[in-house]
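Researcher: Please translate sequence to structure tokens.
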Amino acid sequence: MTAGQAWMKTVPGGDGALLLTVGGRWDLYGAQALMNDLDALRPPAPQTAVRLDLAAIDGLDTVGALLLARLAERLRGEGYAVEVTGVRPEHRALVDAVREADRVPSVPLPDEHPIIEMLERTGRVTVRGLKRGLELVNFLGVVTVTLARIAVNPRRLRYRSVLFHIEQTGLNALPILGLLTFLIGVVMAYQGADQLRRFGAELLVVNLLGISILRELGTLLTAIIVAGRSGSAFTAQIGTMKVNQEVDAISTLGLDPIELLVVPRVLALMVALPLLAFFADVMALLGGATMSYMTLGISFAQFIKQLQGAVGLNTFLVGVAKAPVFALVIAMVGCYEGLRVTGSAESVGRLTTRSVVEGIFLVIIMDALFSIFFSFMGV
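Model: Translation complete:
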């Protein structure tokens, strides 16, 4: 054995007691090598007592004292009379303290009723959600104050940054948005025609497409796609800057991170999303018109004429009017979660996922509130 290494030696005694001598350094690093030997220790059959000699121990810490104390308690539990001898004066206080602490029985946790546990979890989640909602409202207030300050002094606005984010969130999103909304228009026209054919009212599929797409689905689907694409990008970009301590550097230089990072993204998305919603409406109606022509024989001219009679300008305006509000919600959530990132890549991924979920959730909530409001106003 190496110098200072914990060791253990057993010698059968003539008086019916097994002499167990331990030595070396019984600490966190030395004693862990003997844990399996301690668990496997069984005195020979003739012995009815064990004498534990600690005189050869050179060093002892809490881990070593706990191993020896539990060895003695285990042997006592198996019916052996255990006597601890040779404890050095400098080790006695630690051995006594560990022995007393190890004897303190653990208090079993009371069994909770499943309904009580469910109510507790529900309450905890509710309180956490309310706290997160208050933090978002507070962040909205900070962004609003910053926007008001920029409105008073427009030279503070970084126009180049706004144009860059309009390109990233708007122009670059056109291909995927156009493809998805075109296919959604195809699906809606096919499913609607399949149902209306039973009543001989295939032409009313144009009414179905016009009202549902222009009033609700066009803007809503655009906001959901943008939340998954641009909202997550905002969180990842700002979160990476937080990890690299670039946001701290901006504050150190006396600049406002809200004005520099958040406001350009909010304004850019509030400009881009209504335009994207209009593009999505056009592509969805184009997909519906294409499917109507292929399955029902409705020409494009007939489709447009029926569409003009089915929907008015108010239907289009109701849908597009919601786009800036959705954009504000998506940009605010994405930037807020990005600023909450801590110094790890895992935090970036976790909060990026959370920003997408929260953004889509709040968009749907806002859409429901708009529907109730427009219904109450008779629009």
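Researcher: Any highlights?
Model: The first strand starts at residue 7 and ends at 12.
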